[in-house]
Design a protein that fits this description.
Length: 283
């Protein structure tokens, strides 16, 4: 009789685990009519394998990335999703990373530490558009994933993930709180910090207003602190502007805010070399 009950319960367990990358929780086992003694028997028989407290792998313990991710999400309670570097791996933005699985919970209370898991908390997590399901695993949206990365990964991996996300044609539209005055102030501070001559700001050159202008050396710098492409039309307009300025014998350089932060010495060296040269005669 017990074998028949166990067989029926195991079928229920298998159906649940199949929807969750081979992982099941203690609560789900109980709902499938597997009590504590039934869990113990299955663990001893090698049919269940404990991954976290209250979370088990069904069938075999050989870990897969998806199983590891699903187990971490289930271990941290309702509403928890895969996030940060782990989410970037799941979305295909990065190759598998060593170390713990990162998840984010909308809860502001509860157990903080679990072996092999880094738990982040975000009460705003459930905002519309912030989460998705991929490979049956709840996960932060592509945009939210990229936004979260700088808090846990080095800048070169953040840049790699962002490039791959763009290559895969995910619409990131990352927000920015930078204003035009911020751009001007930050770039002028950059020039002072690296002992570069200060440029004219927001002046007309030919038919275009440019961000920064050195008239003697005929150098123009355009800065963009927005962390997303503004669309194909802006891309075309920028290139047309550069073409027009080159026809007027101007040297044009474009730098993003991320580049100024990540490669200050290289940019300062490039600009210093351009600005040390003699004046370029007008065409």
């Amino acid at each position: 009789m017990r074998e028949e009950l166990d067989s029926t319960a195991d079928m229920r367990v298998a159906r649940v685990a199949a929807r969750q990358n081979g992982v099941i929780t203690a609560a789900q086992l109980h709902a499938a009519d597997v009590d504590k003694s039934g869990v113990t028997r299955r663990v001893r028989a090698g049919r269940l394998h404990r991954l976290h407290r209250g979370v088990y792998a069904v069938g075999h313990e050989a870990p897969s990335e998806y199983r590891r991710f699903m187990a971490a999400v289930l271990a941290c309670g309702e509403g928890t999703v895969l996030s940060h570097g782990s989410a970037a791996v799941l979305w295909g933005f990065l190759k598998p990373l060593k170390g713990p699985v990162h998840v984010t919970s909308p809860s502001t209370s509860g157990k903080v530490q679990r072996a092999g898991i880094v738990l982040h908390r975000s009460p705003s997590l459930m905002k519309r558009g912030e989460t998705r399901v991929r490979e049956r695993i709840p996960v932060t949206s592509p945009r939210r994933t990229i936004e979260d990365l700088p808090s846990v990964l080095p800048s070169y991996l953040v840049r790699r993930a962002r490039r791959q996300a763009e290559f895969l044609k995910y619409e990131l539209r990352l927000p920015t709180d930078r204003s035009r005055s911020d751009l001007e102030s930050d770039f002028l501070s950059f020039c002072r910090r690296h002992h570069l001559p200060l440029p004219e700001v927001n002046v007309k050159v030919g038919r275009h207003e440019v961000d920064f202008h050195w008239p003697v050396q005929r150098v123009v710098v355009e800065t963009d602190f927005f962390d997303y492409h503004r669309g194909s039309q802006s891309f075309e307009d920028d290139h047309q502007r550069d073409l027009d300025l080159r026809r007027l014998s101007y040297t044009v350089r474009r730098y993003t805010g991320a580049q100024l932060t990540s490669y200050p010495a290289e940019i300062a060296g490039e600009l210093g070399e351009l600005l040390r040269r003699d004046a370029v005669p007008s065409p």
